[in-house]
C-alpha cells in the first residue's frame, strides 16, 4: 500500500508541474527551452523535444526511500537523450510559408497577432491582412539554407542599446535573423548570408554542428605523388581554414629542392612547416626524403590540425600528436609499409620556434612574414636554412607604399625593376632580424613571381657574420627620369651633392629634383651559384619538371651568362667547379656544405672558406636589370632580345636574362651604353624610312652590319626557344609586367 501511494503521489506531482504541454507553441520567445528541458507527462509518457520516453510502472513502484534517486536518474536520462538530438529551432526558421501561417493560427472571423512581431509593432488583424504581412515582410526577405527559410524576426530576442530621452528609457528592438546552425542573431541579411557561407566553407552544416557528424565530402587533390584532402573554397584563404593554392606548386618545388640539398649535407635534419594548412608541404618532405628528415607540421587552427592528421593517414604516414607522447599513443596510418613519422602540433608559430631548435624552417603565412622572423632566427641551428614566402605583393610591388613602410620600414616607389626591389626589401628585413640574434645570413635564392616572393637564406652564427651582413644593407638612389640607379656609398658622412653618385646627368639638364632615395635594401648577391646547381640536380632526380626551367634560368642569372653558355660546371677555377657542378660530396666543398664526414665544420674551416670566397665577389651578378621595352626608341624597331644580349656581350659586358622580367636584361653596362647599343641595332618602324636610316642611326653603323648581325642571331634565337631545359616561355609570359604591355 505504501508503494502504491508513493507512485500516485509522484504522478500527481509531475502532472501539477507540467500543466501546459503547448507552452512551446504559445510562448515562442523562450518557453520552448523550458519545455524541452523539463519535459511533459502525457498518458504515462514524457514528452521531450518531440521525443516520447515511456515511464514504466516498475519505475513508479519503488520504495519511499528510493523515490528521490529514481526521479534524478530519470531527469538525467531525459537530458542525455535531448542532447543527442537536434535542439529546437527558432520559430522564424520554417520550411514553407504554410508552416509560418500555422504559427499564427489564421481564422477568418478572428484577429490574430503576428508570431514574429511584437504587438506594439504590428497589431492583431484579420487573416487576409496577416497573410500578406507574413508573405511580404517575413518570407520574402528570408535567407534560404538546405530547404529552410530563416525569416526576419522582430521579437525582442536581440536587445539594442537603450536610448535615454529625458527621464524615459526606450529600448528599441531591432530586426534580426536566427542562424540555423549556431543560433546566432545577425541584423543584416547580407551579413547573415556571409555567416552561413562561412559555416559551409568550414564544413559546419546543420547535421554536423548540431546533431551527428555529416559524411565527409572533401575533395582529394594530388601533387607530386602526395594526396591531400581540402575543404570547399580551399583556394580562398579568407573563407576556409585549410588553405591550398594550386598556383603555388612551383614555390613548393623550389622549397623541396632546397631542403633536399640540405638533407645531403647532414642527416637527419629537423624541419618545420610553421603554417601547415593542409600539410601538403610537410607530407612531400616526409614522403620523398623519408629517413633523412624529421618533419614537424604546425598550425594554430584546430580544423587545420585535424585536416593534417587525416592527410597523413591518407598518405599512410604515422602521426605523432605531441613530442612528449610515447610511441603507443601515436596514431597509425592505414598501411605499414611506410614507417615515416610526422609530428603534428597545434600552437602559435612564434611559440614553437621559441621552444624548439630546427635545421630547416619554412614560413608561409597569409601576407607578410615579418612578425615571425625574430622567432625563426632565435633557435635555428648553425648553417641551417630559413625560407620564407611573402604573399603581400601589393605592398612589396609598390602598390601600397604606406604598408611597405609600416611592415618593412622601407621607402619604395614603382620602378621597372620592382620585383627585384621587393626581393631585396624582404632580404633586408631578414638580415635585420638575424642580426638582432647575433647571426648573419648568406642568400641562397631569391625569387619574385606573380603571386609570391620566395627568399632562402643560410644562417651563420656569430657577431662577425652578423656585422658583415648588416653592412650590406644600404640605400638606393633612383632617377625617376631615366630609371638609372646606384647604391649609396658606404660611410656616414653627408655628401654635398648626392646626385653626383648617379651616372646620368638628368639633374644637370632638367630643373627640379629628379631622384629619390629608396630603402634600406639588401645590396649583396641574390643567388648562390653552387647551391642553385645542386638544387637543379635534385629537381632532375625527383622529376620536378616545373622547377627545372626556372632553376636553369636562375643559374644563368647568377653567373650572368646566357643559356647558350650554360654548362654543368662553372667557367671559374677548379675548386669552384667542385662546388657548382652536379653535387658530389667532397671534403673541400665551399660554405654550402656544413658537414665533413658526418660532422659539422669547425669555425676555422668556415672562416677559411669565407676568406677563399672574398676574391670571387667581383664575379657576382650585377644588381638590378633594365627592361628593353622601357628604354626602346620611339619610331624604331628594337632587335630581338637574344640578339641584343649577344650585342652587349660582344661589347665586353656581362649579360643575362632574368626571371624577374621576361623582357629584362641583367648587365653591368651603364644605362647610357645600354641605350647606345640598343639604338645602334634598331631599325626604323616604317618601310619608307629605311632609305633615311643614317639619319636615325649613329655614324659608322652600316646596313650590312645590321643584316649580318640579324642573320647571326636567328640560329641562337631558335635554339633558345627550342631548348626545353632552358628558360621556360611560360614563366616569362606568366610574369610579364603590365607596364611593359602598355608600352
Q: What is the CATH architecture annotation of the domain at 219-323 and 339-490 and 497-522?
A: 3-Layer(aba) Sandwich
* Poorly predicted spans: 14-86, 161-172, 207-216, 323-338, 570-618, 688-743
The percent range for strand residues is: 15-25%
**Distance between the amino and carboxyl termini:** 105 Å
Query: According to CATH, what is the class of the domain at 219-323 and 339-490 and 497-522?
Result: Alpha Beta
The structural class is alpha+beta
As a percent range, the share of helical residues equals 25-40%
| Helix segment tally | 29
Number of E strands: 30
Oligomer: single chain
Average pLDDT, rounded to a whole number, is 74
**Strands across the major sheet, in which order?**
15-16-14-13-17-18-20-19
Q: Would you identify the CATH H-level superfamily of the domain at 219-323 and 339-490 and 497-522? A: Vaccinia Virus protein VP39
Rg on CA atoms, Å: 36 Å
Amino acid at each position: 500500500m505504501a508503494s502504491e501511494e508513493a507512485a500516485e503521489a509522484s504522478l500527481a506531482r509531475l502532472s501539477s508541474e507540467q500543466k501546459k504541454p503547448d507552452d512551446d507553441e504559445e510562448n515562442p520567445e523562450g518557453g520552448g527551452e523550458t519545455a524541452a528541458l523539463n519535459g511533459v507527462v502525457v498518458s504515462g509518457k514524457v514528452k521531450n523535444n518531440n521525443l516520447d520516453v515511456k515511464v514504466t510502472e516498475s519505475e513508479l513502484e519503488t520504495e519511499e526511500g528510493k523515490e528521490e534517486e529514481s526521479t534524478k536518474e530519470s531527469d538525467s536520462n531525459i537530458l542525455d537523450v535531448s542532447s543527442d538530438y537536434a535542439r529546437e529551432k527558432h520559430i522564424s526558421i520554417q520550411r514553407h510559408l504554410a508552416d509560418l501561417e500555422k504559427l499564427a493560427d489564421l481564422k477568418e472571423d478572428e484577429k490574430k497577432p503576428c508570431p514574429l512581431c511584437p504587438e506594439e509593432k504590428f497589431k492583431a488583424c484579420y487573416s487576409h491582412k496577416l497573410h500578406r504581412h507574413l508573405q511580404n515582410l517575413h518570407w520574402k526577405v528570408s535567407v534560404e539554407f538546405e530547404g529552410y527559410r530563416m525569416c526576419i524576426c522582430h521579437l525582442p530576442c536581440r536587445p539594442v542599446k537603450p536610448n535615454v530621452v529625458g527621464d524615459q528609457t526606450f529600448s528599441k528592438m531591432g530586426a534580426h535573423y536566427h542562424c540555423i546552425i549556431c543560433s546566432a542573431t545577425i541584423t543584416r541579411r547580407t551579413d547573415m548570408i556571409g555567416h552561413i557561407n562561412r559555416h559551409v566553407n568550414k564544413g559546419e552544416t546543420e547535421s554536423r554542428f548540431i546533431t551527428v557528424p555529416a559524411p565527409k565530402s572533401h575533395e582529394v587533390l594530388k601533387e607530386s605523388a602526395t594526396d591531400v584532402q581540402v575543404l570547399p573554397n580551399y583556394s580562398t584563404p579568407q573563407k576556409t581554414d585549410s588553405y591550398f593554392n594550386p598556383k603555388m606548386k612551383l614555390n613548393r618545388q623550389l622549397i623541396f629542392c632546397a631542403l633536399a640539398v640540405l638533407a645531403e649535407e647532414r642527416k637527419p635534419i629537423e624541419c618545420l612547416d610553421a603554417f601547415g594548412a593542409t600539410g601538403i608541404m610537410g607530407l612531400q618532405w616526409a614522403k620523398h626524403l623519408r629517413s633523412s628528415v624529421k618533419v614537424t607540421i604546425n598550425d594554430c587552427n584546430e580544423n587545420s590540425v585535424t585536416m593534417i592528421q587525416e592527410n597523413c593517414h591518407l598518405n599512410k604516414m604515422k602521426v605523432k600528436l605531441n613530442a612528449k607522447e610515447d610511441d603507443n599513443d601515436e596514431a597509425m596510418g592505414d598501411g605499414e609499409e611506410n614507417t615515416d613519422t610526422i609530428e603534428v602540433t597545434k600552437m602559435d608559430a612564434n611559440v614553437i620556434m621559441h621552444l624548439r631548435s630546427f635545421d630547416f624552417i619554412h614560413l608561409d603565412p597569409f601576407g607578410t612574414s615579418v612578425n615571425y622572423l625574430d622567432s625563426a632566427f632565435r633557435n635555428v641551428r648553425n648553417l641551417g636554412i630559413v625560407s620564407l614566402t611573402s604573399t603581400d605583393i601589393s605592398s612589396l610591388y609598390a602598390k601600397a607604399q604606406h604598408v611597405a613602410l609600416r611592415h618593412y620600414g622601407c621607402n619604395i616607389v614603382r620602378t621597372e625593376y620592382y620585383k627585384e626591389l621587393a626581393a631585396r626589401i624582404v632580404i633586408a628585413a631578414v638580415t635585420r632580424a638575424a642580426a638582432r640574434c647575433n647571426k648573419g645570413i648568406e642568400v641562397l635564392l631569391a625569387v619574385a613571381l606573380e603571386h609570391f616572393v620566395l627568399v632562402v637564406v643560410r644562417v651563420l652564427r656569430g657577431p662577425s657574420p652578423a656585422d658583415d651582413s648588416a653592412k650590406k644593407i644600404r640605400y638606393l638612389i633612383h632617377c625617376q627620369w631615366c630609371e638609372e640607379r646606384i647604391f649609396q656609398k658606404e660611410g656616414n658622412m653627408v655628401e654635398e651633392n648626392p646626385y653626383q653618385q648617379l651616372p646620368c646627368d638628368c639633374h644637370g639638364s632638367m630643373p627640379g629634383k629628379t631622384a629619390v632615395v629608396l630603402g634600406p635594401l639588401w645590396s649583396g648577391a641574390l643567388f648562390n651559384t653552387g647551391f642553385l646547381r645542386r638544387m637543379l640536380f635534385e629537381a632532375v632526380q625527383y622529376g620536378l619538371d616545373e622547377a627545372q626551367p626556372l632553376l636553369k634560368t636562375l643559374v644563368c642569372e647568377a653567373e650572368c651568362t646566357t643559356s647558350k653558355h650554360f654548362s654543368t660546371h662553372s667557367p671559374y677555377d677548379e675548386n669552384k667547379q667542385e662546388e657548382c657542378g652536379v653535387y658530389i660530396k667532397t671534403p673541400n666543398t665551399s660554405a654550402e656544405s656544413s658537414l665533413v664526414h658526418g660532422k659539422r665544420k669547425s669555425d676555422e674551416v668556415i672562416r677559411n672558406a669565407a676568406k677563399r670566397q672574398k676574391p670571387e665577389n667581383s664575379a657576382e651578378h650585377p644588381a638590378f636589370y633594365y627592361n628593353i621595352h622601357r628604354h626602346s626608341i620611339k619610331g624604331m624597331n628594337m632587335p630581338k632580345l637574344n640578339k641584343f644580349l649577344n650585342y652587349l656581350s660582344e661589347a665586353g659586358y656581362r649579360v643575362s636574362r632574368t626571371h624577374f622580367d621576361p623582357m629584362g636584361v641583367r648587365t653591368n653596362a651603364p644605362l647610357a651604353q645600354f641605350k647606345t647599343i640598343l639604338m645602334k641595332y634598331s631599325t626604323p618602324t616604317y618601310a619608307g624610312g629605311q632609305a633615311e636610316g643614317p639619319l636615325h642611326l649613329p655614324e659608322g653603323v652600316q646596313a650590312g652590319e645590321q643584316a649580318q648581325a640579324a642573320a647571326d642571331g636567328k640560329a641562337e634565337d631558335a635554339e633558345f626557344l627550342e631548348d626545353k631545359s632552358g628558360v621556360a616561355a611560360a614563366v616569362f609570359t606568366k610574369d610579364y609586367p603590365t607596364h611593359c604591355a602598355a608600352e
